[in-house]
Amino acid sequence: MKKTVFLGALTISGLLAGAAAAATLDDVKARGKLNCGVTTGLTGFSEPDASGRWEGLDAAVCRAVAAAVLSDADAVEFVPLTAKTRFTSLASGEIDMMARVTTWTLSRDTDLKFDFVGINYYDGQGFIVPKALGVTSAKDLDGATVCIQTGTTTELNLADFFRANNISYEPVPVETDDEAAQQYLAGACDTYTTDASGLAATRAGFPTPADHVVLPEIISKEPLGPLVRHGDNDWADIVRWSLNALIAAEEYGVTQANVEDKAASSGTNPEVNRLLGTEGELGAMMGLDKDWAKRAIAASGNYGEIFERNLGVNTPIGLARGLNAQWTNGGLLYSPPFR
Amino acid sequence: MLLSDTRYRSYTFQFIALLCLIAAVAFLARNLMNNLEAAGLNISYSFLNSASGYDINQRPIAYDSQSTHLRAAIVGILNTLIVAVLACVTATFLGVAAGVLRLSNNWIVARLMAIYVEAFRNIPVLIWILIIFSILTMSLPAPNAFRGDDATSSMLFRAFAFTNRGIYTPLPIMGPGGWLVAGVFVASLIGIWLFRKWATKKLFDEGRMIATFWPSVALFFIPALIAFFVLGMPITLDYPALKGFNFQGGLQIRGSLIALWLALSVYTGAFIAENVRAGIQAVSVGQSEAAASLGLRPRRIMNLVVLPQALRVIIPPLVSQYLNITKNSSLAIAVGYMDITGTLGGITLNQTGRAIECVLLLMAFYLVISLSISTVMNLYNNAIKLRER
Ligand SMILES: N[C@@H](CCC(=O)N[C@@H](CS)C(=O)NCC(=O)O)C(=O)O
């Protein structure tokens, strides 16, 4: 028994040993690889394709950062994490950054000692039910059995929603999205609730997606974004501006196809020139070279291209841009200026 | 030379070893504190008093999302104890039966038990938990199948429903005087035990055999039944019935509990069976032969001669099996059973980010539980061990 306690203490102190190391950029460069935390598999956000290559909106953010920092978009070690293991993994230094459909909340930003660097998907929590159940509103779910991933914001929102509406439910806690889908399809729960984008992605993987509907209520705000450990501001800046580069690229019409041309010589738009390093020294301000953003964009294209390829209306998931359109198109995506 | 003095030498070495151990622990503790400080974290248990914000399905005590994290931890502790106690009891019955039968003269029975032991002992318990859980969720009907006129499933005796969300059974509801009936029942159980003790004593002292079976049966039923009817049937049954999405009323034994309970029982039962077999084989054959030559029947030989002696060999390893069950019950999270690892060590840890605090509490809990089990079992062991005269 003594031994167990001892080993436990050993594990914990080992767990935190890495947390102190400050200069993540140096670590990543020395390693030659970016350790990026992603989901265990969520279509459209981060999932290995048939050849084992991680694809998705979150995976693309990891690649953009790797391209900016290491000049190699494929120098990424994707670390699959469940909702429950993700924060320990980031806090311990096992990963350098996380892009894992993680909601930006105050307590995660402060108490858990992380820094969210931006938002790459504006989401909200929804419910999916079999059409046969005949439910048309989440408020009709009184007494229902609900599959819910533990360790998520959605778990807390669920409790709040049912309490606020004075109805009851029975939670069935699950660890991963796959497990939830399995339980839901077996009828062990009446409904599954998580981020609406996640529901769309999960539904796309069902044998007969048309038999299931996502209920109209969106019960929470789920701004999903990449995050890093608190305390290394230089590293946070790099991840933040890599994401901003993808968003700004869409706004200014820089695409995967034309980025090489535009970066070859300075053009008419000074903002694009500064973004692509043909004007000014923005890269050097972050400790990177002047081509950093060019490589980040070349990795998988600008935000719009990444969105359309992984989540857009022409994919099985079929999500409209909605809130995730550029601010110029009535959406919320808005990169601060490159200046 | 002092060094050649073995007594002095061994003390010195032990002392040095102790110093090294203390130094190592101190180093780790300091490392932990420094790193915590560097990361801007501190050790604080104040989170235990804030609202947990999450719901738990199996609640032995009143709990909702406004209750504190501490209460969530207590719910988890109770759930751990529930599954551990259930599994210890069934594993013991299974293990004793399988261990005894494995030595049976009946070739088929002995083989079957050998297969049971080998199959269950050699596959990790986590796999068993998952297999049983999958079978439950995949093969049993959803509550929906019980609905309507063309229902594809129906309740057993109109009282039991087997669904992929668990088994629903009638629940006794205690009216006024109900606990009195329960008290009478417990008293008659004690009565049975005393009666059997007395009968054994008579047998040993005077060689007179008293039939115990029918008096025991009578004691079991009659006083409780009399109390039940005299007090005007104060205990009623609440039957489960399909309402809305689920069965309501009655007692729900969730699939996660069943999977965990069964898996821990059959897995640990296989180990206990081997302990029992070893215990029985440790009693020399001469004893059984002597008993047989006195004209005792095989069952009596087992109960009167072999098992009482075998118990002394069986109990110590049995303790570690009970400890194993309790610790293995922390695999509960695999099927979403909300034990202490699922509440305090899972959701609370995750939502508050207080990893160190939660893990320390968890370790303390398992330590206390394990030490308590050992203590109780050691007391029992001391009570039955050979009295040397
Ligand atoms: N946004 C929520 C929930 C994130 C979450 O875990 N989402 C699920 C379903 S959309 C997921 O990504 N599952 C994939 C996995 O299990 O790895 C949070 O940050 O707490």
The proportion of strand residues of chain B reads: 5-15%
Number of strands of chain B: 7
Looking at the structure, the CATH topology of the domain at 69-123 and 262-384 in chain B is MetI-like fold
Average predicted local confidence, pLDDT of chain A? 89
Polypeptide structure, described:
The complex is a heterodimer of chains A (339) and B (389). With 339 residues, chain A is α/β, with parallel strands linked by helices. Chain A folds into 2 domains: 2-122 and 224-329, 3-Layer(aba) Sandwich (D-Maltodextrin-Binding Protein, domain 2), CATH 3.40.190; 125-220, D-Maltodextrin-Binding Protein, domain 2 (3-Layer(aba) Sandwich). Chain A is 39% helix and 16% strand. Chain A has helices at 2-17, 24-31, 57-70, 86-91, 106-109, 153-164, 177-185, 196-204, 233-251, 259-264, 270-276, 282-285, 292-300, 303-310, and strands at residues 34-38, 47-48, 54-55, 76-80, 97-98, 114-116, 121-123, 125-130, 144-149, 169-174, 191-195, 212-214, 222-224, 227-229. In chain A, the strands form 5 sheets. Chain A has a 5-stranded mixed sheet with strand order 10-9-11-8-12, with helices on both faces. Chain A has a 3-stranded parallel sheet with strand order 4-1-5. In chain A, helix 6 links the parallel strand 9 (144-149) and strand 10. Among the domains of chain B are: 6-38; 69-123 and 262-384, MetI-like fold (Orthogonal Bundle), CATH 1.10.3720.10. In chain B, strand 5 (241-243) and strand 6 form a beta hairpin. Chain B has a 3-stranded antiparallel sheet. The longest helix of chain B is centred in the N-terminal third of the chain and has 34 residues, at 69-102. Chain B has helices spanning 6-38, 69-102, 107-121, 125-139, 178-206, 213-230, 255-282, 285-293, 298-328, 340-352, 355-384, and strands at 161-163, 166-169, 171-174, 235-238, 241-243, 246-248, 251-254. By secondary structure, chain B is mainly alpha-helical. At the A-B interface, helix 1, helix 4, helix 6 and strand 10 of A face helix 1, helix 10 and helix 11 of B. The structure holds glutathione (GSH).
